[in-house]
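Retro notes, item 3 of 5
We never archived the inputs for the zinc ion complex last cycle. Fixing that now. Sequence and ligand:
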Amino acid sequence: MTEMTSLERVATALSGGRPDRVPVTALTISRALREIGGPRPEDVMNNPETMAEAKLAAHARYGDDIVVAGLDGCFVEAKAMGAETKISEHMPIVSENRRIKSWDDVDRLPTPDLDDFARTKAVLEEASLLFKELGSHTAVAVIVSGPFSTAGNLMGPDNLARALIEAPDQVHRLMEKVTDYSIKYHRAFAGRAHAVVVLEPMTATELTSPAHYKEFALPYLRRTFQEIADAGLIPINHPCGDTTGILDMAVDALPQKPPHAVHASFGQALTRPRSLKWVQEVVGDDSISADPGDPYSILMLGVKKAVGNKTCIAGNIDPIGVMLEGSPKNVEAAVKQVVAYAGEGGALIVCPGCDLNPDIPAENLVALVEATKKYGSYV
Ligand SMILES: [Zn+2]
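Structure as it came back at the time:
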């Protein structure tokens, strides 16, 4: 097989096929700003040229296969719908000063034109710049928020969790409104990106039960992903945190036919004993154990077995223990494991399980890409 371009490689994996080698992305989102001198995210986030410059610099340095547009991907839709911004340690997020204080507020939520709201406009333009520069040969993805997490940002996660039990009809009314607006934004990336990664941190089973996922997240995600696919974009589902309890539904939310993917850290075998038990059950082997130095990779064994013939799986190098606190040798070992557990037949993308801390050392990002090239070859 001749060497593929990054775009061909990623498209093949997302379609369920076997490329020349496993594709890899370093997921340098806020971390990319370090490549241009480390400006504060809040100072450059509405400047698409600077954001694109940072992403291009990171891509040029690390040579990964997917470039990601966006910064505060979990929060843009909520901000557009009126949530207030605040600055956390690394990222402009939304404040506790919620937009929805009573159910009447649902009718009053603003839905600004995408070109009239600074954040939506800036991310769309950033994606356009990356797509123009790289899109003919390298995959461009954009991070956006899933409707359930946007609802949580508009209400406060604790208020949303209570409302799922106390006012389910009102939650559905909110979800309808949020989903309609979100889809408009997501579809606007057609011609500006190849793939849309929908982030749903609030559907992690640590926060939301599988039963609530099924009722309040799944139907809206299904509509979201279908609309993304209908717009000619490739949908990627990113449920954060421990996903073992909702993995089947997370795949079921995607359109029937690939290309598509589920990206996650999927679980952690040492601190979440249920995760390891899940792998043992799926694989049918009680003796499977976790590596104390890398308790994430083992999850890929179960994920591949459970859903690897239905969608492409992307993950799940431990973003903290390996990428932030580990050495290049640890990164290489984790990549080797992930490829061994989930590489067979293709439909795998190696990447950190979630967004990267800005303090991740450059040599670990180099190691991530180099190790994938070393161990991920199919030819
Ligand atoms: Zn995540």
